[in-house]
Structures are given as C-alpha cells and as structure tokens.
Amino acid sequence: AQKVTQAQTEISVVEKEDVTLDCVYETRDTTYYLFWYKQPPSGELVFLIRRNSFDEQNEISGRYSWNFQKSTSSFNFTITASQVVDSAVYFCALSEVKAAGNKLTFGGGTRVLVKP
Amino acid sequence: DGGITQSPKYLFRKEGQNVTLSCEQNLNHDAMYWYRQDPGQGLRLIYYSQIVNDFQKGDIAEGYSVSREKKESFPLTVTSAQKNPTAFYLCASSVSLFYGYTFGSGTRLTVV
Questions:
Q1: Is beta strand A110-115 parallel, antiparallel or unpaired with respect to A10-14?
Q2: Is B37 in a helix, a strand, or coil?
Q3: How far is Cα A88 from Cα A46, in angstroms, rounded to an integer?
Q4: Model confidence over A32-50: pLDDT tens digits?
Q5: Cα(A34)–Cα(A112) distance, rounded to whole angstroms?
Q6: What are B17-34's pLDDT values in tens digits?
Q7: Which has more pLDDT, B110 or B100?
Q8: Is A50 near chain B, with CB under 8 Å?
Q9: Residues B93, B33: contact at Cβ < 8 Å?
Q10: CB under 8 Å to B1, separation ≥6 — which residues?
Q11: Which of B35, B98, B105 minimises the CB distance to A42?
Q12: What pLDDT is stored for residue A54 in this prediction?
C-alpha cells in the first residue's frame, strides 16, 4: 500500500533561518509523482512542486529547493532564509494509479512556524 | 477565473441531522475528491469520482455519501451515521495526476 511519512510534526524557526522538511514514501509503482503542497491558515492547499519518478534532478526556485532521492525514497523540501509568510502546514503527497481510479496519498503534514 | 467553490465556509449541525457540503468546479476536470482533515492531522480520503455517475469509496467512507450527476458538481452528505463529523472538509479536482489536485477553500463542519 502507498504510504507517505512526514516525521516532523512541527518546526519552529526564527526568520531568515533555513528549514528542511522531510518526506519518505513507500510505493510499488514504477512510475509515480510526488508533490508538495502548502496550507496557509486560510485552509486552502496550494500546489508548490511536482516531481515524477524518472526525474531526480533537484531544483531550486527562489527560496525553495527540493531534493529527490529515489534510492532512499525521500523527497525533501527546503525553505532558505525563511519569512513569516512561510508559516503554514506543508504536505507531501504521492500519486497512486489504480483501475478504480487515480488519487493522491498525503503525509500527515509538518507545521512550520516562522517567528519574527 | 477557473476554480473550485466550496460552500458554506462554516457549517453547524445538530446531532442526528444530515448535512450536505457543496463542491462545484468550472475547470472541466473529470476527477473530483473529498478529503477530511482533523486538527493537527493529514488529509484522509472519503470518496472520489473519476467520471460522471461513478464514484469510489476512499479510506473513511462510512457515514458519508456522495453523488456525481454532473461533471461540475460533487456534493458530500454527512449522515447521522457519522459519529464524529466535526472536521475540516476539502474538495479537490484533477485533470490528471501529472498535474496533481486543485483544492477548494474548504468547509469547516461543527456538530453542536
């Protein structure tokens, strides 16, 4: 069965510190997609990034960067020079393709609190 | 602008009552989903639908029902059989898993 584990339930940092969120997944699929979503206090989940299982190239986008390592089934996310607006819950998700339908499995989320 | 509209934003229900949460999308997405989120926890799948007039149970379907009569609409009914319905409910849609989901802004249901 698909499983996504975010071991960190809450991380608290002071503004301008870097913060790394861990995500470990389990799947038997050979082709799959991984995602990170951000949930601000308003509640709506916002898409941040997608990676497919064949693309292990790490990426930097502004203050965000991602480290995908298939060998360890990890898809970690780093916020560099954190800001108060980064305070949110961050979810890692894994795609699951089945005959009955396709869906995402989410981790438990990591709450990030950035203090001024 | 295209998106997903969930209504109402806040909903209060008396014990023993059924309530229906609305989810409408104008993105022309085939697939729609309902998730439940409890405080400090992740998202758990209730029901999902890949096409009109077809839907599948998720991990926690007991006490809930859905319909998918139109592509744009996927309402969720929380029945009196759901013993602990107080939660935040999120609706999502997808054109393809490659693109992930687009989420609505959620409905916070409280049983009083």
A1: parallel
A2: strand
A3: 11
A4: 999 999 999 989 999 998 8
A5: 20
A6: 999 999 999 999 999 999
A7: B110
A8: yes
A9: yes
A10: none
A11: B105
A12: 84
Mean pLDDT, rounded, for A59-79? 90
Paired strand residues for A24? A5, A74
Report the residue count for chain B.
112
For residue A109, give the nearest of A93, A90, A95, A94 by alpha carbon: A90
Overall residue count recorded for chain A in this entry: 116
Q: Tell whether A40 lies on the interface with B, counting CB pairs under 8 A.
A: no
Neighbouring C-alpha atoms within 13 Å toward the C-beta of A78: 13
pLDDT in tens, A10-39: 999 999 999 999 999 999 988 899 999 999
Contact criterion met (CB below 8 Å) for B11 and B21: yes
Phi, psi for A115 (deg, rounded to 5): -95, 140
**What is the H or E stretch that residue A50 is in?**
strand A46-52
Nearest to A46 by CA among A78, A100, A86, A2: A86
- CA dist A21 and A13 (Å) reads 12
Residue type at A20 in one-letter notation: T
Asked if A31 is an interface residue toward chain B (Cβ–Cβ < 8 A), one would say no
Give the torsion through C-alpha atoms of A56, A61, A65, A68, to 10 deg. Answer: -10
Q: What is the least distance, in Å, from the CA of B71 to any CA of chain A?
A: 16
